[in-house]
Amino acid sequence: MGEGPSPVLIAAGEVYDMSRAAPTVSMLIEDGRCDAAAGTALGPLEKLGLSAAHDAPCRLLSPIDLQCVKAAGVTFAISAIERVIEERARGDSGAAQAIRDKLEDRIGGSIRSVVPGSKEAMALKATLIEDGMWSQYLEVAIGPDAEIFSKSPALSTVGWGAHIGVRSDSAWNNPEPEVALLADAHGNAVGATLGNDVNLRDFEGRSALLLSKAKDNNASASLGPFVRLFDDAFTLDDVRRCEVTLRIEGEDGYILDGVSSMSEISRDPADLMRQAMSEHHYPDGFILFLGTLFAPVQDRDNPGRGFTHKMGDVVTIRSQRLGALVNPVTTSKDAPPWTMGIGALMRNLARRGLLA
Predict the structure, then answer these.
(1) Looking at the predicted structure, is the pLDDT value of residue 128 above 80?
(2) Which residues pair with 194 in a beta bridge?
(3) Using CA atoms, how far apart are residues 225 and 221, in angstroms rounded to an integer?
(4) CA 30/CA 8 separation, integer angstroms
(5) Which residues pair with 200 in a beta bridge?
(6) Are strands 40-44 and 68-73 parallel, antiparallel or unpaired?
(7) E strand segments, 138-176
(8) Quick check: 177 and 293 in contact, CB under 8 A?
(9) Within a 10 A sphere around the Cβ of 132, how many other Cβ atoms?
(10) Beta strand pairing status for 255-261 and 173-174?
């Protein structure tokens, strides 16, 4: 601890340093070494003196390391409508409300009631095409294939307390509170955590081809506070039932609250994991953001322009079975730079004698 990143295991309130058993989280998962007896006891979590400061000797990092970072988009009806709004508004938040009213009136009920890929979904698609209302976002919302994309590189995610970043040239953006599933190398879900899949609505709204600029930026993905591993007391069914709350607190006194219920997801988490695995192979496993119901439309400053972040906002994502993920907001330019890539991690582990 303090010498470099170390996987930890929490069991019965005690924290165990697992770095001697497995120097990375991916190895810990793959080798089945998640046993406190193989670790070094550090004491109760509340007594470790954890700090959110970037240079603190003891702080929580993202609970993953070498895993690929994947994300599923447009997995809730409301998020599908909001993506169509971004597309039709060309990234202009001022045009969003009028488009939102029209779309909700026309397709809101129907898109919530169909099963993606079903005959009913295809009939709805045909009707919307005829009406000139079809969109690439509706294709992944109700078609057979989910939107699965690479969110960011391995080791790039930040953890509890760290700053999350939005591009300094973005004028319309928001957090995306989500549940994320951790998969082993075979695509099996082994646990769940909370995540913030930060989104730039103006960039993606201008063109879907700007998705990488909207999604993959310094400090633009947070995970934590920990991965809760599946066992008899916590299973994928608990993920299917969980509710995720969001609170945004601004330095200007602004407060926004929201709730995302996983029971309203349009595609089952197991199906999303299967589609993420597809015909790929992930030797170090992967993490999959499952998507969000929450798309903030509450006006912050000017009527009709909805929500966007201000620097200094504090975002708290919470779920009863997964804890709370808290991150202050800054720009990607001003967030601490990402410096520990795979090469730096391997050199650090070798220097500590953990690769033998």
Answers:
(1) no
(2) 179, 224
(3) 13
(4) 15
(5) 173
(6) unpaired
(7) 147-152, 164-166, 173-174
(8) no
(9) 6
(10) unpaired
Amino acid in position 300: R
Number of residues that make up the chain: 356
From residue 223, alpha-carbon distances to 155, 158, 176, 180, 240 in Å are 11, 6, 12, 8, 19
pLDDT tens column, 292-348: 888 777 888 878 778 999 999 999 999 999 999 999 999 999 999 999 999 999 999
Strands 199-200 and 243-249: unpaired
Mean per-residue pLDDT over the chain, rounded: 90
Mean pLDDT of 179-206: 95
Which residue's entry shows tokens 């009913």?
120
The conformation of residue 263, written as its DSSP 8-state character, comes to: G
Q: How far is CA 130 from CA 124, 126, 172, in A?
A: 10, 6, 31
Confidence of residue 178 (pLDDT cuts 50, 70, 90): very high
pTM: 0.90
Residue 78 neighbours by CB distance under 10 Å: 18
The amino acid at 127: T
**Domains contained in the chain, CATH given:** 63-72+148-351 (3.90.850.10), 77-142 (no CATH)
